[in-house]
Known about the structure:
single chain, binds zinc ion, 235 residues, TIM Barrel, 9 strands, alpha/beta, disordered C terminus
Amino acid sequence: MHTHQMHIADLHVHTTISDGHASPEDVIAYTLAHTSVTMIAITDHDQIHGAKRAAAAAEGTRLQVIIGEEISSRDGHILAYFIQDRIAPGYSTADTIRAIHEQGGLAVAAHPYDWMVRSCGRAGLLRRAAGSTPEWQFDAIESLNASLRPRAANTQAAAAATVLGLPVIGGSDSHCVTTIGYGYTTFAGASAADLRTAIAQHRTIAAGRHWSWGDMAEAGARLLTRTLNPWAVRA
Ligand SMILES: [Zn+2]
Ligand SMILES: [Zn+2]
C-alpha cells in the first residue's frame, strides 16, 4: 500500500520537568493549537514522568506522544524512545544503550557534534558505532537539531549517519513552546509503529529550520547553564 500522507514528528522537546519553560500539559495545548505537528516526543533530561503526563494530556486528540528521555551518559546525550521506565544518567554510552534496548526502546545519538556539550561525536562515534557488532549499537542519529550552533554540527551528524549506515531523525530541542516543530522527522504512515518501521527501514527524513537568535534569548539563561556545564541541567 502506498500512502501519500507524511506525518510531522518533533522528536526532541523539553518541559518544566527538566529545563523547559512550559509544563507537559502546556506543551500539548500549544502544539495542538499552533503547529501542524502530529507526533511529539517528550524528552526531558534524565526524567520520564513529564512525558507520561503529556501522553495523558494528549489522549483523544490528533497528537500522538512518544514517551522519551534525553539521558546524560558519560559520553554525551542519548535520546531514548518507546521506554516505560526512567533510565539513570551517568553511565557509559554502551550501558545506556543496553538499558534502552532492554526496555524495547530505540537509542539515538543526540546532537552528536555539539561543540559546547559533551558529545558522542567527539567521544568516538564514528569508530565505536561502526561495524557489524559495534560497541555502541545506536538505532539512529539525530541529524537535525534545530537548536544547534554552528549549523555545521548538523551537517557533520548527517555525514556520520551516512558513513555508519544509520537512519536519521530530527527534532527541535525546544525548551519553550515557540520553537516546537522547528526540527522534525517525517515518515510514511501515522502511528508510532509506523515511525518504528520507518526508522528500521531507514526511510525517515530529518528536516526543519534553526532557532533564531531571538529564540536562543527566549530559551534563556538555563540553556546557557547547560552549555557551560552539561551536568547542571537539573540544577
Ligand atoms: Zn542535549
Ligand atoms: Zn535536549
